[in-house]
């Protein structure tokens, strides 16, 4: 019964991470000039209280993405805030699959790669393969958000 309840909580967390909820979209608190601070619904902020064992969240994100669009750093910041609120119940790991030699692991979980272009100068453009996906593991089960490119769907 306990395992079933925990599995339902994992599914709930995955749904929260996967779908846009206009009422609970995290918004950056601009009153904190140097800190990233987001406002979350109380349900999201307190979900860890229902989790009897530690959940592991792994964010596979290519480091190059931070220079392409600030949203990828914001995704990481939001995940770090979840982990901070959870008092040790959520363990967050962030990996660049290429740099950290975890490309095969990311692909085995079903994390999607995608091509993204950068413009280094008016005459030069580069395309590289990038990753931005989340794996949520609890006990012997896991759920995957294979591609995340917006904070609108994160909470």
Uncertain stretches of 5 or more adjacent residues:
15-35
Overall 3D form: globular
- Name the average pLDDT: 78
Distance between the termini: 27 Å
Radius of gyration computed on alpha carbons? 16 Å
- The structural class is alpha+beta
**How many helical elements?**
5
How much of the polypeptide forms β-strand, as a percent range? 25-35%
Helix content: 25-40%
Q: What is the makeup of the main sheet?
A: 5 strands, mixed
Order of helices and strands: HEEHEHHEHEEE
Q: List the quaternary state of the chains.
A: single chain
Q: Quick one: how many beta strands?
A: 7
Description:
- It is a single chain.
- With 155 residues, the chain is of the alpha+beta class.
- It has five helices and seven strands.
- The strands form two sheets. Strands 3, 4, 5, 6 and 7 form a five-stranded mixed sheet that branches.
């Amino acid at each position: 019964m306990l395992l079933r309840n925990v599995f339902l909580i994992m599914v709930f967390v995955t749904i929260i991470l996967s779908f846009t909820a206009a009422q609970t979209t995290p918004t950056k608190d601009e009153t904190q000039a140097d800190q990233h601070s987001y406002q979350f619904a109380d349900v999201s902020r307190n979900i860890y209280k229902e989790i009897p064992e530690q959940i592991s969240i792994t964010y596979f994100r290519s480091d190059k993405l931070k220079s392409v669009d600030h949203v990828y750093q914001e995704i990481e910041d939001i995940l770090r805030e979840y982990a901070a609120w959870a008092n040790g119940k959520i363990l967050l790991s962030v990996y660049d699959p290429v740099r950290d030699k975890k490309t095969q692991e990311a692909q085995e979980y079903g994390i999607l790669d995608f091509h993204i272009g950068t413009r280094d100068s008016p005459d030069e453009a580069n395309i590289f393969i990038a990753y931005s996906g989340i794996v949520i593991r609890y006990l012997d089960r896991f759920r995957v958000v294979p591609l995340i490119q917006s904070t609108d769907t994160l909470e």
